[in-house]
Amino acid sequence: MDALPANANVAPGVVATDGGQVTLLDLSALQSRAAALVQEADKATQEAKSLRALAEDLWVQVGKSLITQRDHWSGSPALAEVAQQAIALSEKVATDDSQLESIQSREHHGISGLAGKLGGWNESRRISVDRETLQSQLRPLWGRIGRLSSEVTLPEIDSIRGQAVAAEAQAQELEQQALSVITAANSTNEELKRRTVSEKEMGFDAPYTVAYFQTYGPPKVESPLILKRGETACFAAPATLARNQTRRQWVGGSQGFSFPIGHTGIRYRVGSFHGHPIEQQALTKLDSGTLVITNQRIAFIGRTKSTSIVLAKLMHIECYADAVAVFLEGRENPDFYLTARPKYALFMINWFLKAVGPA
Questions:
Q1: pTM for the whole thing?
Q2: 176: helix, coil or strand?
Q3: What does DSSP assign to residue 67?
Q4: Element at 186 (helix H, strand E)
Q5: Cα first-last separation, the chain
Q6: What is the CA angle 163-166-169, rounded to 5?
Q7: Each residue's pLDDT tens digit, 158-180
Q8: CATH 3.90.180.10, domain 218-248+279-356, yes or no
């Protein structure tokens, strides 16, 4: 198909067609857009995750600060309960720290010292594992304390809390943005798949052509046809005009005999021919020229023959791999137009027939 002209002054939009939404971008540009949308969604998702992690770290800082200053504030019963759990775990962590420090300060000498070092290592490992478990339980508690402390005001935590709230708000905004972009990417990929299949089957991007025509109208083309008032040529391609023609031949046998005449070598037949005629139809090429489709008619301009068919007079059209057959009122046999782009020619005819409407 001839490339459709781009409108540099209009940003690509989305057009609603009978076949679905179509973006006014060619397939290569649409594919690039789909890839860009996926990248944009991934970027927004990763930034949102980073902001969520930052907000969580800030809430943990708020919770830890509140625990160290437990005597300087009071909060809701829910906050007090979680704070008490955190304090209990913090005391256990402090106990483990003290035990680890004690083990590290011991001195061991000789064989008994080696055994003592081994025992100390095992004990230190056990306490370290216990401490890591306690810390993993403490962190979410600190975060919960931070989030439950909205009514608590302390200079040391107010700024950190504000940063945590801002980080979460930005994360939520990015998550919504990522969701919107993912939806757009999925829609674009579906459109890309639909249009790719259409191009493979039709030989051109039919959904895009429909959207473009709906928005800007069919583009005009140069042709050898002399146009009428209000007529616009929108398709012109080399073509061959052909029609089915009937051929008659006789088949059958004869009765009698033949004999030579003198020494001439010519044989003379005596008897009668009892054959019968049969008719065969064959597609005969009549002329080569240009097939033109306008908003009013289908025309063929050849070297010796020309045709002109008003769209309103069309009865039926058939499309083949290398031709379109046009049936007219009052004519049994169609005109065949052999062309390299029969499907696009049929598309153009259907487009203008829809515009013309029923006769």
A1: 0.69
A2: helix
A3: H
A4: helix 155-202
A5: 29
A6: 150
A7: 999 999 999 999 999 999 999 99
A8: no
